[in-house]
Design goal:
By secondary structure, this protein is α+β, with helices and mostly antiparallel strands. The protein has twelve helices and nine strands. It has a five-stranded antiparallel sheet with strand order 6-5-9-8-7. It is rod-shaped and about 180 Å long.
Amino acid sequence: MLVLQFVVSVVAIGSGMAWYWWSSGHTGPGRHEEAAGLARRVAGSERLRVDLQQEDRAAVASLAAGVRRAAGADFALVSATGAGPASSDLTAGRLRTASSRSLWVVRAPIREPSGRVLGEVVLGLPASWRGGREPIPATPAAEAAAIALGIGLVGSAALARWLRAQTLGLELDELTELLQEQQATLYGIREGVVGLDDAGKVRFVNDEARRLLGLPHRCLRRPLAVLVPGGRLREFVAGGMAGEDLMVVHRDRVLVVNRIQVRVEGQPLGWVVTIVDRTESESLLRELDGTLGLTEALRAQAHDFSNRLHTLVGLVELGEYDEAVRFGTELQMTDTEVSDASEREGVGHPLVAALLLAKKAVARERQVS
């Protein structure tokens, strides 16, 4: 915006100055030389030299009047000085103020073919002299200001229209509010958010996404598929997999990833990838599942033990002592066989063996042989 405004200002001011320069008759250093050249041309006239030699005052005065009218000068003088070589020091193009008016006073010597100075031509030209033309009767400063203002208005209108198109019709204060809201949203949530363009390059990313994905500090405008190691996560963010709430394992974390396309007025702008860390919740769920399973197994084992105990007590109360002994012996041998079978199958961890015994109780309760 700064560069564009600077260009508009330069063009506007330059156009106004160019118009002022043209209308005021300012032609720079060449104006001086042009005035001196006019005086030299008049002084080099053969007719003027003859009239001076013949001292024809009327002819000289008539020629001077014609030169004044043709050149648009304030005055034109022709003098016979007879000054000799001293007149060769006459200067041309000296600006002076006479009678409270700025004039170009130009002097040129009149010479014979032999080089002797017969006199001089003196022209008094107004400061706005333009080679014999009358100055434009206008106020150049006002015209220059009006032209600069018009060009500035047109340029600013075009610039404003272009900026509005680039900012989707949002004003500067609206852009500021939008940026603040975006920053507050991106860095105030616990989810990781990554914005991608159509080419899959990172346009914005919050700190949580950097932490979960292990992204480097300088990751903007780089393809996310290159920054993420190979696997399901890379395939998903690159668009190779479809679905919602995809659960992936990335490094030592369990992540739930979503990929949503963003459209404005039907035109695709890119993608937004959201990442949720489910590592702790998944760990808690696994522990809960294990606890529930162990509780169920212990309940079944307790129920089975209670049933056995009731059976044994019933046999004793009925006086079937031999049957009670046989039943107790059979239960002991069965548990020993299961324990020995667990060890034979390579289950050396006592907790796992105990879990198998508990599962056996559940299976027996459900009449699984």
